[in-house]
Amino acid sequence: MKILALDTSTEYCSIAVWLDGEILSREVLAEQRHSELILPMLRQMLGETGLTLAQLDGIAFGAGPGSFTGLRIACGVAQGLAFGADLPVIGICTLEALAEAAGGNNVIAALDARMSEIYHAAYTKTVDGWQPVSGPTLCPPQQAPLVRGRSWMGCGSGFSMYGEALRTRYDGCIKHVMGDLRPHAREMIQLAEPRFAKGLGVDPADATPLYVRNKVALKEKER
Predict the structure, then answer these.
(1) Is pLDDT of 180 > 50?
(2) Range 164-173 contact pairs with CB under 8 angstroms and sequence separation of 24 or more
(3) FRET label pair with 86: which of 68, 110, 176, 222, CA 20 to 30 Å apart?
């Protein structure tokens, strides 16, 4: 199976190719240049692997939560490429990708959502993959959904920004924190491959970002 994955949900831009079990990936600090960098990166990666879009079995993208603009870029690029090559697409949750990167069996994933809030989800790994204990949500770190047990790993920029508040909230449940982890196309493609193999890809027209936060700013009267 041959799959392409891309992510622009943070200040970084990453791509990966699944080539019959081998993963090739690349990442750059894009800041605000995602739309400028993503297509040249994709062309270079495909050129290095000798693949064309028509030889792919599907395209995965970082669906969110994350930067509003970044999510729209990733979804739009995946849709455009997939339409042209008649390929299915799969959106991968950035928080699930963090859990995959963390390497534990019980993972609390948190991304800094700014405005003193985090994007949060908690997962447990089973033989069928990651199962959400609490699904993606937006909340202040002091109100993060609670979990049971004391063998959890915490990961993501939410922990680097609000580590003290989250450790207090979880009161001994977390044994290890990896605050420097960020969503990456490498883990997204690992999550996407078995889903494509099961025929779970969707028509590009049905691909949508996972925003979680519906409003970026509050009006003055709402503050």
Answers:
(1) yes
(2) 165/141, 166/108, 166/110, 166/118, 166/141, 168/142, 169/141, 169/142, 169/143, 169/144, 170/108, 170/144, 170/146, 173/147, 173/148, 173/149
(3) 68
